[in-house]
Amino acid sequence: MTALLLANPGLLKEQRLQRCTIITFDMADIFIEVFPYFAIYLFECLY
Questions:
Q1: pTM score, two decimals?
Q2: If residue 9 lies in a helix (H) or strand (E), which one and from where to where?
Q3: How far is CA 28 from CA 7, 21, 25, 34, 44, in A?
Q4: Containing domain of residue 37, as a range?
Q5: What is the pLDDT of residues 15-44, one digit of tens each?
Q6: How many domains is the chain partitioned into structurally?
């Protein structure tokens, strides 16, 4: 596996980019799920 990565460093970068993208999408999903509760909380605090 390491030999393959040494032979093709672009592959490693691609995998890392893919992993970062997946993490970003997960964060967005969590944000979308949590945001309504956060908005209600803020709304109740302000009014």
A1: 0.39
A2: helix 9-46
A3: 35, 11, 5, 10, 24
A4: 2-46
A5: 777 776 777 777 788 888 888 888 888 888
A6: 1
